[in-house]
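Archive entry. Fields below.
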Amino acid sequence: MTPARERTEITDPDDPRIAEFRHIRERDLTGREGRFVAEGTVVLRMLAAAHGAGRGIRAEKILLLRNRAAGLADILSLFPADVPVYEAEAPVIDAIAGFHLHRGVLALGVRDAAPPLMELLRALPDDALVLAACGISNHDNIGAMFRNAAAFGASAVVLDETCCDPLYRKALRVSVGSVLTMPFAREGSILDMLGALAEAGFAIWALSPKGETEIRDIAPSPRLALVMGTEGEGLPPAVLSRFHTARIAQSPDLDSLNVGTASGIALYSAAMAKRIL
Amino acid sequence: MTPARERTEITDPDDPRIAEFRHIRERDLTGREGRFVAEGTVVLRMLAAAHGAGRGIRAEKILLLRNRAAGLADILSLFPADVPVYEAEAPVIDAIAGFHLHRGVLALGVRDAAPPLMELLRALPDDALVLAACGISNHDNIGAMFRNAAAFGASAVVLDETCCDPLYRKALRVSVGSVLTMPFAREGSILDMLGALAEAGFAIWALSPKGETEIRDIAPSPRLALVMGTEGEGLPPAVLSRFHTARIAQSPDLDSLNVGTASGIALYSAAMAKRIL
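PREDICTED_STRUCTURE:
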């Protein structure tokens, strides 16, 4: 039996101890000293797993709806004792967070600066699948890409500087917490990023509706990277002309697939080709 | 040169001519006499294509942000002259619709009662791919499933009575308007629905993480139906025990895939097996 975790009651929405949670819908903490907000029990559990696992991710504080706290004892026991747990009644939580939190589970975390891309790539195994992305600014899509990368056994996600930060609250939630456990880097231009992948021995496949090879027929390589662009413009011509290109066959009279779904199909195909799963 | 479409200016948010658009975020018109709200230029174009195409879908009225109207002349000309077009300045639009409409493009449509399932199935070609779903209540997921069904050449989508209405505003938007062009039915229990599909000659493949056959290896059949359940509970045991089952290989230590993404992978695999694309 896990001993019940000590919790501190918050009765004043303006209590400075939970100031970071105030109005989280209107602002976003990401980019401010690497802090991020985790929502919901699944993401809280992933945060517990990431905390202290050597990935540079730590939990700072937890805020719970009072009637959720008892049911979370197992997860709370995974956090070290110096991570404070606050609880509050529903009206106080609503006043703090600026909207009705259906899940009543919030945590504040901090991530050290992401590792430099070259360092990340060096640390990957000789046999690795990597998902790369260019220009993905939609939080749902970034979250979906991390969720899919985790589901299909990718070793890392690498983003160019024009992608949004995957630690945004909504991206983190849509990823079902995978952003906290999947190694990632976000830096530089797409061409510099792909150059670094090539130098590290990755076969690079850029996805495009006009790609040369159907995605389920791509050749397996020990190190293989899939590159996704935006739904509207796709990848820049300079990328498509320099690397292998792959397509996902689809009806010609439609907008392209959602990029999150396309990443799922591409990762599934690559994982099957590489016999990861 | 298309003659400019006549537009009527609205200056009073309480004008009865645009009453149906008021507070659309808080309420949902679907289920009230078959009415639905279409948002954005892409969905407006799909509504124009569906209007009068014999699918029982009609546009009733259009409401535009004034500075968007001129740029939409081409799409507006696709609607018959008896579909009124209203326009208003941004503060009026905001007051009408209850939130800031970034796209400034709204239409009200009406759909006749969906065709009975048996009638829908009889009208399908001898060679057909159908996406079936059980218990999908999330609007994003329903929308994603329609988008994927359209992208991979499915002939219809069939939903059991526990799925949400795909004409909900957000489902329609996420589907990029495919709900308006893809034949669908929504009625009865999942077992009745699958019984009707079997009777109509469909080979039925129920998706489950524990399915027998890897999805990319399923046998092609002239008439083939894929069945998706919810992310949490999955399909009922009575479905999994009576029909073929297929799995999408994935990392064992994770939640299952998002059901929208899973439908994309399953439809892609089936479309490739059936050489639809």
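CURATOR_NOTE: Chain B touches chain A through 30 residues (CB under 8 Å).
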